[in-house]
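Thread title: Can someone regenerate the structure for this chain?

I was given the following input by a collaborator and told the matching structure tokens would be attached. They weren't. Posting the sequence so someone can regenerate them.
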Amino acid sequence: MDKRFLIGLLCAAGLFLGFDRLYAADAREKTFAIVTDKTLVAWVRLANTKQRGGSVVTMIDNAERFDGVVFGEVAPGKWMGGSDFFRRTSRDQKTWPAEPVGGGAFVQMAITYRGNEVTIRRNAKRYAQYKINAPQSFKPGCKVLIGLRYIGAQGEVGFLAGEIDDVRIYDRPLTGEQLAALKPNRDDGHKAIAKPIAWWTFEDGSPDYAGKLFGPARLVGNARIADGKLILDGRDSYVIASKPPPPFKPAIQSMFYKAQHPETGNMWDTWLYLHDGTHHLYYLANKGRGWNNISMASSKDGVHWLEIGRILSKGPGVKWMGTGSTWKSPNYKTDGKFFMNFSEWKGPRQTIFFAESTDLVHWKRLGDEFEFKQDERWYKPRGRWDCIWTIARPGGGLYGYWTATPKEETGGRFGFGETLDGVRWKALKPPKVHGVGGGEVGAVEKIGAKYYMMFGNHGRMVTLTADKPEGPFHAAKKNMSFLSGHTYFSRFFRTPSGVLGNHHSIARNRRVSFAPLKTAVVDKEGVMRLGWWKGNEKMKHKRITVKPPAVVKGGGTAAVMLDNVFDSKVGVILEGAIRLPGEDSSPRRGVYVEWGKGKGSAILLDAAGRAELGPMNADGSGFKAEKKVDRQMTFANPARFRLLLKGSLLEFYLNDILIECFSLPGEATGRIGLICEGKTDAFADLKAWR
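Best answer:
Regenerated them for you:
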């Protein structure tokens, strides 16, 4: 065998056998494979020991799993190893010493992770030690936060107040002796151990760091660097090191639309404006602490939505924003403008501000000279002042209704006022309201000869009516609570074909989606209900053949499962006819939606079309009514039903009247059953669409 070949083969074998060590030692400055055993260490001086839940340094991945050096989250004044849902956190901290008040000196805090053992050290001395079920591994693409515990779908959580002198991450557990040898901003202690994979000294006045493994680092909020120290205010300041996210490419969504832009966060209140054939959907959102932005999407048909993203942000020093609405300038023919209102809580109270646009997409905030404040003749100076909804004012200009706190002697429940130009507002005496307590104004619209208000009251939307814009307003006698359950804050939406309604739906994990548009249905008695909007027929993309079981066995409320397994992630619409029970004492009939093995939620209907919704086992046992609904109307028998299902959200209609919006305890599996007392003719004409 040739000597050169043999030497090359041995070298290759040695390189292969020693790859992990070579990779860790020589390629550390470029990338890393997986970090499991590790040490997080930092020198920190707290601004105070009363703060709760802030983190000195956190590693967090895209699935929001994290490990961090956290102060005071479980027990006040104590250091701990923070983690997602406390999976690697000991909650038994009774014997752990509290941080001295007013210490004033920098403290070295370190947490080492070695297999199933976590050790916390303060100034290199053991502070606490405990076992965990399993360690967390971090792969390329994870982030490092300095001064913040968590960032993700719930925004920014856990700000730290204080100064940080030095932060390091090691891809191995360090001993107390090794930690004692480390000095801030010096590498003396590295002689006996490898260098850290990431190291912030802040000596050059920037958040740059040695290692660069996690991507560029930047200051956020009011974070600043002075005299080689990172200064954090505990409100909105931190450092993040992360690789730039890929360009946001929105996908068209239908049925339940959910905001996905990274600068938007979780959405809440929604409102719409239709102009030149385009539906503009706006929503309040909270990417970070509190509601801090308004974002939007658009649609040509009101069904298929394309996300645009953030259009307005809260101002400096503002605690949180409030929701709003959009209207055309009373002088639109000459100025071509649209206006939007929103509130901000700054200082001791909440007041209303405005923005303008000429295309309904690009918005410019108007100056503080337009700020609309409480008129203390009728309204409490530090009460609610939020969300103007407008209608045409006879003689020109606009009337407005908004969430407010009128003085008790007025008999009012909300604000009322007027404007001639759309942005300079004058408060008027609040209308008297009968039959309902305080709440939030959703929207007002004139339908027929009456004025209808959607009013948020104790987590539900109720109907108030009046004969004149200035009131008085009365709670509806029938179907007063027209929207409740896992949803809130409906608004009216004016279209050439009639008045629609919109609202959001809330999953049990608190993630919010924009629900399908509805028709505002007012019957001969003047009772308002929400109904199926014919435009939603555009949701039906692909017909699915539904084959009900040929033989139905059993009885009572046991579910007879369809043969289909629907794609609930994409969404499904199931329609058909249901024969309601013949008398009140008969077993109820309805639909069963599975979300676990042998578990699901049932929608049960009685002879009058009254519904109960709640969890139930597939065999009909264990039903618990979480929601009871009576729309107080007579339904045809058999009645037509529609079930809309996507993820964990559903809507159920009977004769095109919305019965309820509902959130399942878990994601739907795609299996749907019929509850029909074992009678084959209880359901007919079943159809489904993807």
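The mean pLDDT is 91.
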